[in-house]
């Protein structure tokens, strides 16, 4: 068992060396803040991966429980799985009452004069009933609510309309009483810039006067500069940062117990 320069024990044939290729753990990452989509379930599944067949669990059906008597009821000894066992038994009942004598109606029970329309012909009869409440709420329009379409003018509906003419006002332009003195004069037109139809001339602009810095100009003093922090004109001193407390590439300390 050998030891490194830092005093760590080395076990086996492995020795520290530089990685042959880039390792993801050596570079910084945002950590578990950004999570990849899952590969299980149907919600938020990774679209780049295949989805396994999904099955749903059905609802449990209600079972009707029959309430049966408990062991507190004693089953008679003569009851078998095929029925009652034993000699025939008879019970005593009371004597039934004598049936009543049927009394048919006599001739005087009928009233043929009250038969009415069931036997004799009668004239039609009508009855007057009160007005229903639903009819009184219906407000139908009367005859004066309707009007026939007009037959005059050009907006007829079912009749052919006669030709109609409209009268317009007299036009002032070109009329005999038009005042020709109100026409625009030569000064009413603007002169066209020659740069539009000829070669454009060069244009020169004038800017404000620049004044050199004087005594009243606010300039930074010697205390406003930090020459010790300048790194453009000279080499920068090495700087170090604190890394992770634990690394996945550090071999744990394995101490062999003496036999």
TrEMBL record:
Assigned GO CC terms: cytoskeleton
UniProt cross-references to InterPro entries, sorted A to Z: CIMAP (IPR051291), SHIPPO-rpt (IPR010736)
Positions of region (Disordered): 1-25, 37-81
Spans through the membrane: none
PANTHER family linked to this entry: BOREALIN N-TERMINAL DOMAIN-CONTAINING PROTEIN-RELATED, SHIPPO-1-RELATED
Protein name (database record): Ciliary microtubule associated protein 1B
Organism field: Notothenia coriiceps
């Amino acid at each position: 068992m050998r030891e490194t320069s830092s005093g760590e024990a080395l076990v086996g044939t492995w020795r520290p060396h530089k990685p042959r290729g880039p390792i993801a753990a050596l570079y910084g990452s945002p950590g578990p803040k950004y999570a990849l989509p899952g590969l299980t379930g149907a919600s938020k599944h990774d679209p780049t991966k295949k989805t396994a067949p999904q099955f749903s669990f059905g609802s449990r059906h209600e079972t009707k429980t029959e309430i049966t008597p408990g062991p507190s009821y004693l089953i008679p000894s003569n009851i078998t799985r095929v029925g009652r066992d034993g000699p025939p038994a008879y019970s005593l009942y009371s004597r039934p009452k004598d049936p009543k004598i049927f009394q048919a109606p006599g001739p005087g029970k009928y009233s043929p004069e009250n038969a009415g329309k069931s036997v004799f012909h009668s004239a039609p009869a009508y009855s007057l009933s009160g007005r229903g409440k639903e009819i009184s709420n219906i407000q139908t329009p009367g005859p004066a609510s309707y009007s026939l379409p007009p037959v005059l003018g050009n907006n007829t509906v079912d009749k052919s309309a006669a030709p109609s003419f409209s009268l317009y006002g007299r036009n002032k332009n070109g009329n005999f009483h038009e005042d020709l003195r109100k026409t625009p004069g030569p000064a009413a037109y603007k002169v066209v810039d020659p740069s539009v139809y000829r070669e454009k001339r060069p244009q020169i602009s004038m800017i404000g006067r620049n004044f050199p810095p004087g005594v009243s100009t606010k300039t930074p003093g010697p205390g406003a500069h930090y020459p010790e922090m300048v790194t453009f004109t000279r080499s920068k001193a090495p700087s170090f940062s604190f890394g992770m407390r634990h690394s996945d590439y550090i071999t744990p300390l394995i101490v062999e117990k003496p036999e």
